[in-house]
Amino acid sequence: MNTEPYLIITSLTVLFYSLITIALVWGLNRGRRRPRIQRTEPLVSVLVAVRNEQENIIPLLTNLTQLDYPAHKLQILIVDDKSTDRTVDIVATFQRSHENVQLVRTLQTSTTLNGKANALQQAMPHATGEIIFLTDADCQVPQNWIRSHLSWYYGRVGMVGGFTLLSRRGQELDTFSRLQATDWLYLLAAGAGAAGLRRPLSVFGNNLSMRKKAFLDVNGYAGAGFSLIEDFALMRTMVQRGWRVLLPADPALVVQSAPEKDWQTFLQQRKRWAIGGRQVSFLARIFLAVAVAGRFIPLLPLIFGNIPAAGAALAAVFLCDYLLLHKAAGSLHRQDMLANFFSYELFTFASSLIFGPVLLFANSVAWKGRVYKSTAMVE
Fold this sequence. Notes:
The chain has 2 domains: 5-28 and 279-362, no CATH class; 35-263, Spore Coat Polysaccharide Biosynthesis Protein SpsA, Chain A. It has helices at residues 5-30, 57-65, 87-95, 115-123, 145-150, 175-196, 212-217, 220-224, 230-240, 263-276, 282-296, 299-303, 307-331, 341-361; strands spanning 44-50, 74-80, 101-105, 131-135, 157-161, 164-165, 207-211, 244-246, 255-256, 364-367, 370-373. It is an alpha/beta fold. The model has no long low-confidence stretch (mean pLDDT 90). Helix 6 crosses helix 14 (341-361). Helix content is 48%, strand content 13%. It is globular, with a radius of gyration of 21 Å. It contains 14 helices and 11 strands. Strand 10 (364-367) and strand 11 form a beta hairpin. The strands form 3 sheets. It has a 7-stranded mixed sheet, sandwiched between helices.
């Protein structure tokens, strides 16, 4: 009996998609081991690169100064990347009443690092902590954020990432924001699964910590080279130097951020990720290729009029996505984020179809008032 070639292609794609999903779910579970009890309180530094964040800076500083950690062992460095609004003035006023808050000014721009990476690279000599923490100005971290991150350090662990969610339980969000929140959960679930397999693919720089020793070992962002996703580039360089990277689905590590406000800023975000993501490893390229193919493979039998085969492929892909999301949501006690699963699947298909060609051929992106290409800042 001859099998139509399109059915073979469809079956193999769904098979690979399923096997990758099973591996990621297993890795996600493997990476959830109970962290050790942290018995010491090392010096730590929290670095936040800011550029024109006058609306967010007070909530951020208030949040960071209320962390459950001794103030004399907690250094907070706000690194200004040439802001043109009132950000610097606000920080300068705030630090007068908080001795552990310091303002660091970026002295010069760089064509070999993006703005954020350049700011953090210049600020690192000011950091006195043994463990360095990174977050963004539009984020809110949990009160036990420092201690929770520290509990994951052992042996050759050089970097620990955590999940960043775009919604709180019970928070009222518009449809676009809810879909972005689910998308971030899916992306981080995949990243956590890969890290659990000791093949880390990604971390998010708004919820990240690292040993300063590991940072210096790779010469930081300068050693990682130019990238529009500097956190990924730094992670990759640390892995190459033999450091372990963890991304556990630990609810104690969860940081809250904000979704993009409109489709234009959403597209710019994805362009930045797409351009920066071209530097990923061969293994990551395979993963991404299968992930993209899985989104569209149900269309292949549909083109040939085989509706049952298209339905079966679609159901298999949906099931795989649901299993990964369900595992991550359960680990974080956020099962409520599964409520819009089917609309999320439609969102990913539509956005991939509409934006896919743009992202594939994008060669520049506007970010924080600057224009970047894949290898350098251009203006």
